[in-house]
Amino acid sequence: MDVRKYRILLCEDDSNLGMVLKNYLELNDYEVVLERDGRLGFAAFQREKFDICLLDVMMPNVDGFSLAEDIRDIDPEIPLFFISAKTMKDDIINGYKLGADDYIVKPFDSEVLLLKIKAILKRNEEEVRQSEAAEFELGLFHFNPKLRELKFKDKTQTLSPKENDLLRMLSENRNDLLPREKALKRIWGSDTYFNGRSMDVYIAKLRKYLKDDPNVEIVNIHGNGFRLVVPI
């Protein structure tokens, strides 16, 4: 059985350091996409699915701090490290305020960076397992993602894997916005037009399943995403 490799977005404008770090991480069984400026980095993040982002702070076109803000708008939970020669206290504080999981100062020990990456990915994997084990009360519905079951009184609907994943994300963000990009990246792997149309089909299916309780609905937040409205 093949083990899925974690995917890393590495944004580093120093071509030598970027290639050395990319090769080192690939030797340790990670898949790495290397981009040399923030604009290309954001395009890669929109196009592909990653498990962690390593961002240089000083890059052309779009700097690492601005790139982090754009990434956090799409996925507030993805692990994110800054890698920077900027050692001023204000820069480091700014990095953490932007939601960084770590701020790595150049020059750094690649082995230490590798251990930090492993630790943060292990923590996230455990959080995902706990999330998958959670069950939800959605008005008159009981939703069990582990069994892929949506129950209404004595009626049980077995969900397809994508229906299940989408309803789980909506349930985790119930009464709040679930950004389209976040759902597309996590479930479909990329934010493309065709994947977006596919997601709309699955949203329509979930609305059909939920229509037995008029107090539960999936609202389209135009241009942003969806909100699962449930009674509090």
Textual characterization of the structure:
This protein has two domains: 7-130, Rossmann fold; 134-229, Winged helix-like DNA-binding domain superfamily/Winged helix DNA-binding domain (Arc Repressor Mutant, subunit A), CATH 1.10.10. The protein has helices at residues 15-27, 38-47, 64-74, 89-97, 110-133, 161-172, 180-188, 193-210; strands at residues 7-11, 31-35, 52-56, 80-84, 102-105, 136-138, 141-144, 149-152, 155-158, 177-179, 217-221, 225-229. Strand 3, helix 3 (64-74) and strand 4 (80-84) form a beta-alpha-beta unit. The strands form three sheets. The chain has a five-stranded parallel beta sheet with strand order 2-1-3-4-5, with helices on both faces. Strands 6-7-8-9 form a four-stranded antiparallel beta sheet, covered by helices on one side. Strands 10-12-11 form a three-stranded antiparallel beta sheet. The longest helix has 24 residues, at 110-133. It is elongated and about 60 Å long. The N and C termini lie far apart (43 Å). It is built from eight helices and twelve strands. The protein is α/β, with parallel strands linked by helices.
